[in-house]
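pls ignore typos typing on phone
zinc ion + seq
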Amino acid sequence: MTSFLTHRARVHDACLPFRSRHSALRTCITLFAPYGFRATYHHLTLSAAIPRRLEADPDALVRAVEELHEARVLWLARAEEYAARRRAEKQAGRRAVANPRPWWLWSRWEGPDRAWYEDPSRHPPLRLSEYVRRQNAMMDGADLPGCPACGDERPLEPNSTGHGWVELCRGCAWAPAPCPCGQRHRLAPEMPYGWKGIWQRAHMGDEGMPNPHRPTG
Ligand SMILES: [Zn+2]
Ligand SMILES: [Zn+2]
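k done
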């Protein structure tokens, strides 16, 4: 059994304390996180409605890990197929990775999705399996309208870098093009609240509804 499946089983295990089940969910996200670790966790707190007090909804952690698992199955099938093709290409003497790289091999800080790493509340609103399906379809050459990541069709939002502009998707802060100066910049503003608060679900109420007094992003 892979580590992911072992920890998924721990999230399901009602005999374990909530703390251990929550920590097993964390391990699963370190192993597979389509939006990056922090943004994927933030997404799951909302989509699975994980309350601040885990006891208030024992099934919330299970809903979260199942959403992640469903997306991982779709990704894994594609990643295995890709790996097999790469092996065949290498045997045939083609070593260079084809461009564009598959979506799961994007560089974390240079990809168009970097805002998701800067502010965990900026990520596509899609269910994780929908996001994976969308990325896989585009890898197969599908020409989908709107933002490549989330499908938002609104005009991009200009974001000042001090000397130029980087345009971001209004739905998920995807940046189709980097700043013309070629430097990396912070794309999302400083977070109004820290990662620790998100981890402890300060943006969620005790019963699993988003907390009306805190921004959810
Ligand atoms: Zn988007
Ligand atoms: Zn610049």
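The radius of gyration is 19 Å. The pocket of zinc ion (ligand 2) is lined by residues 161, 163-164, 179, 181, 183, 185 (CB under 6 Å). more later
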